[in-house]
Specification:
Elements (H helix, E strand, L loop, with lengths): L19 E9 L2 E9 L3 E5 L5 E4 L4 E3 L3 E4 L3 E6 L2 E2 L6 E3 L5 E3 L4 H4 L1 E8 L5 E11 L4 E7 L3 E7 L25
Parallel strand pairs: 4-12
Antiparallel strand pairs: 1-2, 3-6, 5-10, 7-8, 7-11, 9-10, 11-12, 13-14
Length: 179
């Protein structure tokens, strides 16, 4: 034991959808370390549900297509009936990851489809929606000294104030924090 923290993942009665990439990460004050490993479950392609993504314009997105089934011949992405990549800002990797550099609302927002196919021609598809938020200045109206209204523009990063949880919480209690 030696004071080590040991973490286990136990999968009983493994199913096709249990296949895919697993990641273990350990973090402490001295740093962090991680290790990823893929579990390959023999069977037809299966793609797990992907959450829709919202990204700020100008940022880079890395989207993984969570495919299981083995063996998989090809993983591809499409948008609007067109196979990706369609420009120099997009790239599809062999492992099914899609990268979009410098996200642009007009060019990149929409529905994307990931397709996985095996040697037998069996395939699975799953879609997700990408929303690109425009970078815009927020205008705030404030009244100073109650004499005249003033409009000004702020271009600052948001700030999150620290919060903590009470030590004496018990099941069934209600609490509220402000973020």
């Amino acid at each position: 034991y030696n004071g080590d923290v040991v973490s286990f993942v136990n999968i009983s009665n493994i199913r096709l959808e249990d296949g895919g990439l697993y990641n273990c990460e350990a973090i402490n004050d001295a740093g962090n370390v991680s290790h990823s490993e893929t579990i390959a479950v023999i069977g037809a392609p299966f793609i797990k549900v992907m959450k829709n993504i919202t990204v700020l314009a100008g940022h880079t997105m890395l989207i993984r297509c969570p495919v299981s089934g083995y063996p998989i011949s090809k993983i591809s992405w499409s948008r609007g009936g067109r196979q990706l990549p369609i420009n120099e800002r997009t790239k599809v990797f062999e492992n099914g990851s899609l990268i979009i550099i410098d996200a642009n609302r007009e060019l990149d927002e929409g529905n994307y489809i990931c397709t996985a196919i095996n040697e037998k021609g069996e395939k699975a598809t799953r879609n997700l929606h990408i929303q690109v938020l425009s970078k815009h200045k927020q205008c705030f109206n404030r009244t100073f000294f109650s004499f005249f209204p003033v409009s000004f523009t702020l271009e600052e990063k948001p700030v999150i104030s620290a919060f903590s949880f009470p030590q004496s919480l018990t099941e069934g209690m209600q609490m509220m924090i402000t973020c």
